[in-house]
Amino acid sequence: MVNTSPPVYEQIAEVIRRQIHDGDYLVGDKLPSENELCEIHKVARGTIRRAINGLIAEGLLESEKGKGTFVTSPESKTLLWNFGSLTDRLNDTSERALAKVLEQTVVIRGNRKMLRLKRLRSIETENTVIPISLDISFLPVDLLPGIEKYDFEDESIYRILRGKNRNVKADWYYRIFRLNRAQTFQSQHFPISTNHDGLLQNFS
């Protein structure tokens, strides 16, 4: 039988790549040392180096001599002043915004308790459902008590923030664009294969 599994170094690169996209490693974070990664993945140093070098070539990591390997982000940043939810934008159209919650868990990010919310966003139009984005949001639990109890398949994040006793309103935000390769978990929800180029947007 022919082994169709990708090489081990590519599998490790995929794990690290997904950790970056999922927010486990943020821009500027230092990766574990090569020795630590060898222990984590139970492989030789050469395998780790091939994985790291591949991610450096993609622009996801950068190596600083004597300091280590860090998460980086070649990106384009745009400042936007007017924005709202997808649900709001489709209110006056025949289309309907849909959300499927893929993950809704409370995590510690930095020293803060956050609700990590992963949703597949789609638009329903003329009895056809079209997936348009895979969103990952981090919401501070201390500033938004009870936020982890909401049903985000029925509720818009923006409407919850603007709701009773909250009145949280953002006047502007940054939209950051980065060319990125599709990952396995993304290809499961969109009609694309892994390693196809796509556009990753970060909002802050």
From TrEMBL:
Gene3D superfamilies: Chorismate lyase-like, Winged helix-like DNA-binding domain superfamily/Winged helix DNA-binding domain. GO terms for molecular function: DNA binding; DNA-binding transcription factor activity. InterPro entries: Bact_HTH_transcr_reg, Chorismate_lyase_/UTRA_dom_sf, Tscrpt_reg_HTH_GntR, UTRA, WH-like_DNA-bd_sf, WH_DNA-bd_sf. Keywords: DNA-binding, Transcription, Transcription regulation. One of its GO terms (biological process) is negative regulation of DNA-templated transcription. SMART domains: HTH_GNTR. Pfam families: GntR (PF00392), UTRA (PF07702). Residues 6-74 form the HTH gntR-type domain. This is Uncharacterized HTH-type transcriptional regulator yurK. It comes from Mobiluncus curtisii. The gene is yurK_2.
